[in-house]
């Protein structure tokens, strides 16, 4: 969008924050997405527990790197990182919850605030 001068930029203009965002989108692609599928496809219940914990750990790393106030990754506006994680946040609730018992976010946590912001964003809906 930045290159097309159409709509709000998804990456910040500051090079340091832009690089930070790109690193965390890479984290989603390398750790969250494979972890999601590993957990979903595993048939052994013991390994399901192990893979669920791994997925939670990778999501926690992302949440820890996010802006403390949010509700999105960088601020109160959706950014490139949010675009990367949004489909997987939706799938956690729509796929992993019924098939693998994925828990709801703990109320009043940073993760719960982010999930709620994604779920209720007009563009995501």
UniProtKB/TrEMBL annotation:
It holds the Pfam family GST_C_2. Residues 14-125 form the GST C-terminal domain. InterPro entries: Glutathione-S-Trfase_C-like, Glutathione-S-Trfase_C_sf, GST_Omega/HSP26. It comes from the Eukaryota. This is GST C-terminal domain-containing protein. It comes from Cryomyces antarcticus.
């Amino acid at each position: 969008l930045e290159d097309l001068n159409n709509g709000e930029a998804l990456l910040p203009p500051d090079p340091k924050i832009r690089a930070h965002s790109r690193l965390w989108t890479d984290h989603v692609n390398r750790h969250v997405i494979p972890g999601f599928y590993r957990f979903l496809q595993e048939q052994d219940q013991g390994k399901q527990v192990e893979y669920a914990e791994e997925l939670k750990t990778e999501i926690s790393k992302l949440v820890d790197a996010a802006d403390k106030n949010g509700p999105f990754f960088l601020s109160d506006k959706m950014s490139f990182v949010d675009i990367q994680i949004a489909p997987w946040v939706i799938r956690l609730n729509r796929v992993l919850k019924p098939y693998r018992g994925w828990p709801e976010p703990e109320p009043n946590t940073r993760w719960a605030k982010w999930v709620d912001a994604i779920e209720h964003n007009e563009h995501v809906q």
